[in-house]
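Possible regression after last week's pipeline update?

I re-ran a chain I had predicted before the update to compare outputs. Posting the input and the new output here so someone can diff against the archived version. Not blocking, just want to make sure nothing changed silently.
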Amino acid sequence: MEKLSTAASLFGVVVAATALAMAVVGGEAAVVEQTFMVHEMNVTHLCNTTKIYVVNGRFPGPTVDVTEGDTVVVHVINRLPHGLTIHWHGVRQMRSCWADGAGYVTECPIHPGGEKTYRFNVTGQVGTLWWHAHVTCLRATINGAFIIRPRDGKYPFPTPAKDVPIIIGEWWELDLIELDRRMLDGNFDDNPLSATINGKLGDLSNCSGTVEESFVLDVKRGESYLLRVINTALFSEYYFKVAGHTFTVVGADGNYLTPYKTDMVTVAPGEAIDVLMFADAPPAYYHMVALANQPPPPDLQIPQLTSRGLVRYAGAAMDSNNLPMPMPVMPDQHNTMPSYYFRRNLTGLALPEQQQRHRVPAHVDERLLITLGLGSICRGGNTTTCKRGRSPETVVVATMNNVSFHHTNATALLEHYYDGTPEGVYTEDFPVRPPRPFNYTDRELIPAGPLEAALEPTAKAMRLRRFRYNASVEIVFQSTTLLQSDSNPMHLHGYDVFVLAQGLGNFDPKRDVEKFNYHNPQLRNTVQVPRGGWAAVRFLTDNPGMWYLHCHFEFHIIMGMATAFIVEDGPTPETSLPPPPPEFKRCGTNGLSQP
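New output (post-update):
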């Protein structure tokens, strides 16, 4: 955790009571209140002092630690010169869509100097989620863990001696608002300077190469530790290992998994993976390493990003002979197959009291095939006839079924849906399939050329999809190789989805449906669609409201790889979206929340 600068303390950010109150309600569940003061802070890394944006003087920010069934109340005070929202990533928000915190989707940003209270319940979820800013690139430093503990205190695995968030992120010297502006202008040449583990760069970087710059996990031999591994990065999926140790994966995205033993965790942006680590090595110091992976050329390349921390056993001393501390053997940064195989080995674990929630819908009411890739729109906006293939006549955009989402910065979609005034704001015709089939994973489509250019034309629009309440929806996400071959961590707000299967190459319904796991699939809020492959998910639309769907790579969001799902009200008040709560602040005329 970084220390407050003098300037930050002037804001009164010495919030001694971050967790302000826990008032018992109904004998067991509680109301848990916290205050988030969002402000600027100066931090020195890599020989330079950088202005960053933080909550309560901390990077990462404070952990929200609650028990299943609690009501969460967070008071956000915005002391930034920019608007922002806070999104509670992975919280189901049952009938509380107004508190989801998706900027310009469920609310307009909190205006500079303004305040907002988020209030919602956490029921039916146990494990690790997280929270983050949901406007521009601010989530790179405005983020933290969100832990939901079981009401009875019991886990379906040995109770650990301690649990520790391991938050993997990135260190940017470029101002995050400027980064966002450059990407909106189509400039994607900027990169982070380092990876971070719990805000620390590690001992590999110039001018930061000391143990003091490393996150240190203190352990005792013979005890187990629950590591809550969260990827908050803007750009990269990460491999995570600890030298001389193995993990047992036990949960992901606030849901239990069948225990799976491995020596490496793969975590994509938006994901949270729970692993048990048993401290069974000889007492010593051991390196932990977070390494970003990326597709090989000809995909656009970023520098190799690595951070490393330490596992320090009680009673261990630094080697007096200056022998190197054990280092884990990491995959090549361009080898993305370990990510694919890691996820292929994960299955869900439903406790007896969760059987109903973990039952996969047997029928399907609506099927969607959504292709994920890049495309282009003509400059000027009035013509569809221009030279393609990374031509100066076009702007490269990210697409879903050749539609690039047009993000508004003037209003909130949920308000227009609730008020019945969608005209001129959005349409409800997001396509259920791509406009034309092609060989989606043809490597010849990555470099610009005639074959690729014919597939580039894209619509820039705010096209949403409406579903009736309690419909069974199946989506096959298909990664493509149009101008790139990235994986795609797809995050759906307000829902967990059953991950039925994933595969490499093009999805073939005649062959691949036979691979669907209906018995014990994972429940996830963020689904990593493999590079050059596909992922099939299914869910029941039991949560009315307006729910954002997007890739969690920040450059893909800004480029338009997003849409929103409207879920209609059910037949009763208990199955309908309620009116906005008293603390909700509607949009003003300037695209920010009203004072």
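Follow-up from reviewer: compared with the archived run. The radius of gyration is 23 Å. Marking as no regression found.
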